[in-house]
Each structure stands twice: as C-alpha cells, then as structure tokens.
Records
---
Amino acid sequence: MFDQFPEPARSQLAAAFDEGRTRPEWCFAEGQARLAYWAPFPGSEPVIVWQFDPGPDPVVAAGLLRRSLGAMGLTKIIHDISLKPGLIPVVDRTVEHEALTRAGFAMEVERLLLEWVAGTDLPSDPGRLTYHPARRMDRAEVLDLLIRISEGSLDYDTQVEVATAGAEREARWMYDDLMNRKAKPDWFVIGRLGDSPVGLVAPDDHSIAYIGVVPEHRGHGYVNDLLARGTRTLAKAGVERIVAATDVANAPTANAFLRGGYSEVGRLFRYYWRQS
C-alpha cells in the first residue's frame, strides 16, 4: 500500500499504519516528490507532514504540498527539518526549504535537539517532591494542571494553540497525546510539594515527551526535580539514549536539560502552514 515510497520510509509508514497513525489516503506522490501525513495517536487528525522527500525540483514539490493540503482539507499543519548543529535549511536543505515556502509554509521556531546517553551522570534528585502517576488520577485534575502549565508558557507551540484554539482544547489534546504514548503506567507523573501540584513530567519509551511547571512554582528550580525523575525513570528501565527537544528561546527548560547531563545534538526547524 506504500509501494511508491522507497525504504526505509516504506517500512516506517507500514509500522505507523499498524499503529493507526497514518493511512494510505494520507500519502501523495508527484514526479519524484513524495510525502505522507502523520497523526500522534489513533483517531486524531494529522499534525505533521511526514516522510517528505521533495525530489530535485522545489516547484514540483511545492505543487504536491498544495495539492495534498487541499485534498486533506486541513486548516493547519507543521513540518520539521532536523539538522546537525551549525546547519540551516536555507543552505543545507535548499530544495526542501524552497518547496515549503513556495507552498505557503513559514519557518517560525527553532528547537534544540537534546540527548542523554547511558554512561553519563544522572541528574540528581533533590527529593523535594512526591510523585503520583497521572493515569491513576482523575482526568479533570490532570486537565486542570495542563491548563495551568500553559499559562505564560515559553513553548511556542503551546502559545500558538492557546491563542488560536484556547487553553482547554490544547489541554485536552495534550492529555490524549500523553496518554497514548508508549510508556509504562507509572512513568507519567505529577510532582507535588505537600498537597500543592508543582508540575509534571511525561517520559515515553525513548524520550522526555513533556515537562512543565505551574506558574506559582516557577523560578524555584522544580524543572530540575521533574527532569531528574523522568531521566532516572527511563535509565532504570534500561533506555540507553533518551532524547528531548525544547525551543531555543525557552532558556529555563533548555538550561535544565544541559545541567541534567543532556547535550545538544542538533536543531529542529519547525515550519507552519495555516489556511489563509
């Protein structure tokens, strides 16, 4: 069903189809250009242009993007270009960058790609917080915490979604995303200081998928506690390479990862398309 794609994309698409994250009708080809759309969990709408191979001609690739967006009936979508440190899309992925901009995408945020590898010192846990598995908590309680974390967030995606869709809808989507991650039931936890929720950390099978602190507890270093919990959880489970990403502009979170033994391994350039 994905025969128009070469390996390894074909196998990746087949695996994503089995997980309910893509469909054959979300795949498009024109000339040598190929692309597919991807959803983070079964039943959700596509959120990203995935497996995008623009081929040699940015004009053809831009046309494919525009045609696929129309066929999918989407109102917004993102596309990520990941590069090693020091490289930029306009120079190092010229055809892909030109195709995206011709199709109406704009590069709006740059993210740090981070990695912790086994053998690196684990971040220390100060022991200030107690942790409670989010999956054992009432859904409304977790949603309320996600809404509070979104207030004043330095994360660009969160800012965009709150401004356009509202904090409640963003929280519901984030809840569904985090609950559908590949993770053991007790990995996604809420950190508390006494009876007061401080924040949360949600590891999945290979990454720190989400981390956040509520506004009233920011500025006291609790992101370090939460990151230590998430990293130690995955390391104890035998994960040898833990990945994470955060906006370059989100200095508090970026610095927490660097203090916690993570190193920068690349940059992610996120392009946005919205229906005009």
---
Amino acid sequence: MNFIRFVKRKPLEIKGFGDFEVAGRDNLRNVGATFKRRMVTVPAVVLAAVVLIVLIPVWVPLAVVADVVRRKSRLPITRLLLFATCWAWLETAGVLVAAVLWLVGKSSSHGAHYALQRWWTSRLIASLRLTCGVRISVHGLDEIPTGPIVALCRHASLADSLVSAWLFGTRAGLRPRYVLKRELSYDPCLDIVGRRIPNYFVDRAASDTRAELDGIRAMATEMSDGDVAVIFPEGTRANPVKRDRILAKIENRDAERGTQLRKLRHLLPPKVAGASALFDAVPNANVLVVWHVGFEGMDTFGGIIEQLGQRSVHVHIAIEPHLRQHVPTAQIGPWLDSVWLDVDAKVHGFLERI
C-alpha cells in the first residue's frame, strides 16, 4: 500500500498508514523507528482505554481511599484518573479516524486533519472541565489580526499544547502549525495526525542546530491568512529550578543580558533562535504574544495532583497582538527579552490580585 515519490524540499518521502515521512537528514532508518514506536504506543493507548473503563469498579474506590488517606477532599488522584480514562478513549478514537482517513485516500488532506484536531482538542478540554473542574477564560480573541501569524506562547504546564491548540483551532478558527519537541511523538494522535499537517518535531538534543532551524523555517513556508505558527520560546515548562539553571548559563555567556533577565519571577528566559527562524520564514506575519495564569505548579503529574488537591483551577488566557511593522526584525533578541519581562510582570501582578 505504500508508495514512493519525490517532492520539492523532500528528497524522499514514503507515505502509508501513519503518514511516515523521511526528509532531509532523515533516512529509511527513521521510517523503521517510527513504525516500531507506533506498534508500541498505539496498542498501549488502546489497552489503557479498555483496562481503565473495565476496571472502573476497582480503581475508583481505591483512588478515593488514597485521596481520603492523604486528606485531600477534592479527590485529585481520582479526578486525574478519570481524565486519563477520557484521554485514552479520545486518543483511541483519534487514531481510528486517522486510519479511516488513510483508507479513503485523505491522509494528505490538511482540512480533514485540522477538523479532526479541532474535534479532539475540544473534547479533551470538555473532559478537563468535567473531571478536573478546569475553567478557562480567554481575553483578546477579537484583537487577533488578519494575515499569517506567529504566536509566542508561555509554557508553564503539561496542558499548554492542548489548550493552545483548542484556543487557536476551536476558539479563534485558525489553522495552527506547531514547533513541538520530538518527545511528543509518543502521543499517538500527535504523532500520526501531527505529521499530516504542517508541524515540526524539533530534536532538542540535536548537535546540528542549523538543521533544526531549517526545519522550523520549512514548516512555516507558504503560510497565508488563517495560518498561525506557534512556538513556546522558553523551550520547556517553567519552574524555579530550571529558571536558576538557565539564568546561570546566560550570565556566563552574557552578563548584561543575565542581569536583565534576573527580573523574571515566573517565566523562563526566551530562546531567540526558533522565534527568529519563524520571523525569517514569514516576513509578513503579525505576532501574537499569548500568556496565561492558573496553571502554576502544574508542570509535572505530581504537581498537577498537588494543585488539584488545593484549589479549583481557573485559567486566564491573554492574547496580545503586535503588528509586524512594530517588531524590530533586526533586533529580535532584545525585543523578545523585553516582551518576556513585560509578560512576567503581568503574570506576577495577576497572581498577586487573586
């Protein structure tokens, strides 16, 4: 069922059920690795979905007992496991729909896969509301400019990618394309559907960073009105330990910048290269800065359980537009540092008021 073809910018591309792609520095070995990975992750998710639903009469009482013993009246373990059950079934459904799209010859249809992504993210957000009581308020939707867009988003929790995909796809009606870490390939829906639409899975451990930046630029080519390229400039979820470690490295390289960024209290220092690559690829794109408050302390599963046990989760998302003519393209680094310091101050002020 597979076929081979040559296309511009991709010396070799092989497509099949999972839409395996080999391009640039990748080779046939990567196809084998992708196949092996999916032969583990897809059955594992399906098995998890079946086990979780069949054994509900067993694990729900056990989880409630664990919460009661820990004196957590909000039942965080129970609620998180209920969400995990919803997630596993939605993952299974997403993979099945992706398989059907391949069978009917629509594995290359961006429209069909964006529709699937919108369905998947909206159902996951509804599951978060139902099981964990997460509420989300969005401010600034009506201020999103026209044309292609580059979105620079804060990264504070495990839910950020999901929430931003829901924000841009469902609420804003845009077609998001993401710079994602390669580790997210172990999520079957992100792995399969995410490679059928213009995303780039970056290898953060790559020795050849130029190749990764070229991949980001290629991802953002041919963007038009309604397309948004999304990147998390911090590169990883923020917490105090990471912030101190990254700032120490910056101070060793650039004492002046390190001193300036020591003012950050909640965000991590932004990495300039990826954002700069997007600006290079889409010189006419307007910019959105997206930040949120409410996911603090939820950068690990342990943190999520702790926070769910302490408080209701109300996430406030702010969208701030920056028209491209006001972005100093020749000085992206200082501009991004300034924007990130401003966002950090706003996050701090918001947290002090609640």
---
Amino acid sequence: MPRLFTGLEIPEPLIERLTHLRSGLNGARWIAEENYHITLRFIGDVDDPVADDVASALAKIRAKSFSIRINALGSFGGRKPRAIWAAIEAGTELEALYKANESAVRAAGLPPETRKFIPHVTLARLKGMSAKAVASYLQANGGFSTTPFKVERFVLYSARPGSGGGPYVVEDAYPLESDGAAISGIASLDGPPG
C-alpha cells in the first residue's frame, strides 16, 4: 500500500541555500536535502487501484507555470515547537494548483483535506526543543528569502510505507504549460489526460 502525496520540487540552487540553514539549533533532526519539497496535497496510505485513480485524476489538471519564492522562516507548534520550515510566498497560481490537486484527489474518491494549506518546505523536525531556542534560531535566520523560482511541474511522490518519511520517490510528474498564466479553474479537471 503506497503512501502518497503531491508536491513541488525544489530547484538545486535553492536546495544549496537551504542547506546553509542546517546549523545553530542543537537537537534538531534536519531533513535530508534530497527530500526538500513543498507538499500540495497529502493523500496517505492507499491501495493500488486508488493510487491509479489519483494519478489519472491528477493527469487531467491543466495549469500554467508560475513563479514562487521563499520569504521567511517559521515554526509549527507554538510553545512546543515540532518543526522549522521555510515559508513559500503564496500567490493565486499556487493556491489554484493546490485547489486543483484537492479536487483531483476528491474526484478519485478520497475525503477532503481538513487542514489549511500552508505552503512551506520543512527543514527540521523537533522533539523536546525549547521555544526559546527555536525563537533564537528564527531570529538569527528569519530574514532568509530567495529570488523567485519557476514551477514547471508538480509531482506525485511516494514515501516509505507507514512512516511518511523519506526517501521520497517521484512516481509521476505533471508538466505545467509554459506561459505563466493562472489555472483555468474548474475546467482544469476536464481536459484530456496529459
């Protein structure tokens, strides 16, 4: 039973920049650089027929390429921090691609996502880390940002069964059209398979 999710790959020059953030927080479990990604839609553990239905529905998405950038660092967990992440500046194109992925997954028969879409790259997992240490790390690195980078495809990833951890494998890739306009809305699921 594969554990699946859709996401965006991080370009190599940006991966190199993100790896420079992997210090200054003792006890953090840093994510391997080859596993950096931006999750669009977590799918979970599904059987092969459902995985095939999801892949078919995703292939019907029609979208234009667009640019995004990292504009800050942050943490999840409040007073009990559990992750450090790089925030993605969300524009209408990224939001529309997320919604098209959500619609495709639901068209394949899966329930709706209940969590709010917060586009990010997870940099580290934290356990038992003090909020003060995390705040200090974020203050020292909080000005991190990148120039925009082009999103030219989204992918269907698989993870190790039952763990959700890497290494992540690209199971299928869905290219975006190259002129940079936004997704064409609900009709984005009605086109021919790509």
